[in-house]
């Protein structure tokens, strides 16, 4: 039976949430935010879309690293699309309500895609470890079949874990309030609105965050500790510089994503508030997906070359069609 939200003041059933978001901002501020977030969203979609295209079509990028990068960009496209378009609409319309089903669906997608990205980032760190520390066995260890299995594993655990987190978030009826102090349905805030004691659900989400955030992080730390030891043992300074550049890109992405996600799901709710939650929510829902392709592209000569070739082919095709 679907949980219901009951308003104790009049006994009626509440069937929607109200996303407060930036509702209290002035009209000029909302217009400025709309223009800013629309530009960031467009940039993130364009950059991630370009990476997906070139990693899946350019034969020169036929390696596990770019295979994983293409799927990371696809996850970023899914992740950013679950929250930002709705926020843009709410910045220009007065009606900020979302149905129970819409809130439930949005939260599941955020959970599923977010967990899948955590796991994929760990697999990307392992890929760099094998490439740098075991170069002679790299092609055998990271075969195409293995890469497909790793990406499938990330998606599988993300979607399955999303079901568990969804249940913990909506296991109780809602009877306190239906105002969500954020621009999307974020689990800890929604749970705090439920009837009874929300502590059990919050503790379970905290425990789950330890598994899905800290476990991949342990694999990332171990991988890069061994990579660092291998790099420092080399005599070639040019080889060190190239390896450091590649690893620095991945570590920057990891730090952005994990820092914001850990603050949102592993901190006591007593330390949170709208002024603290929204900036971190914006960081991992729009800033990180936008920065990922920029970070990887600017620090990778092969990616920049592939982008130039792709844009060149597009320009040539347009010229021939005229």
Q: What is this structure's SSE topology?
A:
Elements: E1 5-6, E2 13-14, E3 16-19, H1 27-57, H2 64-81, H3 84-92, E4 97-99, H4 100-133, H5 138-141, H6 144-170, E5 179-180, H7 187-192, H8 199-232, H9 237-266, H10 274-298, H11 301-321
Parallel strand pairs: 3-5
Antiparallel strand pairs: 1-2, 3-4
Subcellular location: Cell membrane
Keywords: Cell membrane, G-protein coupled receptor, Membrane, Olfaction, Receptor, Sensory transduction, Transducer, Transmembrane, Transmembrane helix
Protein name: Olfactory receptor
Short descriptors:
sensory transduction, olfaction, globular, two-stranded antiparallel ribbon, Rhopdopsin 7-helix transmembrane proteins, single chain, Olfact_rcpt, 322 residues
Description of the molecule:
The protein contains 11 helices and 5 strands. The protein has 322 residues and is mainly α. The strands form 2 sheets. A 3-stranded mixed β-sheet has the order 4-3-5. It has a two-stranded antiparallel ribbon with strand order 1-2. Helix 1 (27-57) runs parallel beside helix 10, helix 2 packs antiparallel against helix 4 (100-133) and helix 2 (64-81) runs antiparallel to helix 10 (274-298). The longest helix has 34 residues, at 100-133. It is globular, with a radius of gyration of 22 Å. 36% of the residues are buried. The model is unreliable at 1-12 (pLDDT under 50).
Give a brief outline of the structure:
With 322 residues, the protein is mainly alpha-helical. The chain has helices at 27-57, 64-81, 84-92, 100-133, 138-141, 144-170, 187-192, 199-232, 237-266, 274-298, 301-321; strands at residues 5-6, 13-14, 16-19, 97-99, 179-180. The strands form 2 sheets. Strands 4-3-5 form a 3-stranded mixed β-sheet. The chain has a two-stranded antiparallel sheet with strand order 1-2.
């Amino acid at each position: 039976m679907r949980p219901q939200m009951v308003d104790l003041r009049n006994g009626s059933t509440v069937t929607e949430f109200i996303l407060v978001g930036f509702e209290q901002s002035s009209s000029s501020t909302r217009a400025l935010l709309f223009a800013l977030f629309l530009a960031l969203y467009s940039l993130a979609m364009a950059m991630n879309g370009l990476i997906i295209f070139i990693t899946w079509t350019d034969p020169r990028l036929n390696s596990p690293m770019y295979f994983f990068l293409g799927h990371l960009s696809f996850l970023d496209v899914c992740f950013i699309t679950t929250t930002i378009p709705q926020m843009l609409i709410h910045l220009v319309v007065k009606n900020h309500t979302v149905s129970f089903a819409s809130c439930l669906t949005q939260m599941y997608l955020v959970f599923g895609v977010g967990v899948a990205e955590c796991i994929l980032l760990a697999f990307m760190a392992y890929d760099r470890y094998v490439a740098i520390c075991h170069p002679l066995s790299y092609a055998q260890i990271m075969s195409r079949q293995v890469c497909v299995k790793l990406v499938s594993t990330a998606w599988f655990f993300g979607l399955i874990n999303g079901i568990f987190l969804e249940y913990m978030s909506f296991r109780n009826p809602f009877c306190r309030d239906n105002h969500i102090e954020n621009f999307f349905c974020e689990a800890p805030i929604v749970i705090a609105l439920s009837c009874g004691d929300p502590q059990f659900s919050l503790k379970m989400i905290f425990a789950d965050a330890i598994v899905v955030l800290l476990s991949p992080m342990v694999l990332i730390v171990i991988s890069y500790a061994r990579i660092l030891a291998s790099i420092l043992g080399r005599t070639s300074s040019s080889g060190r510089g190239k390896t450091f550049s590649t690893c620095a890109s991945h570590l920057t992405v990891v730090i952005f994503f994990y820092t914001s996600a850990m603050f949102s799901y592993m901190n006591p709710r007593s330390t949170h508030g709208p002024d603290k939650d929204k900036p971190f929510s914006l960081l991992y829902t729009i800033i990180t997906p936008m920065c990922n392709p920029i970070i990887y592209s600017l620090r990778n000569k092969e990616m920049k070359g592939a982008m130039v070739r792709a844009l060149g082919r597009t320009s040539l095709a347009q010229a021939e069609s005229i």
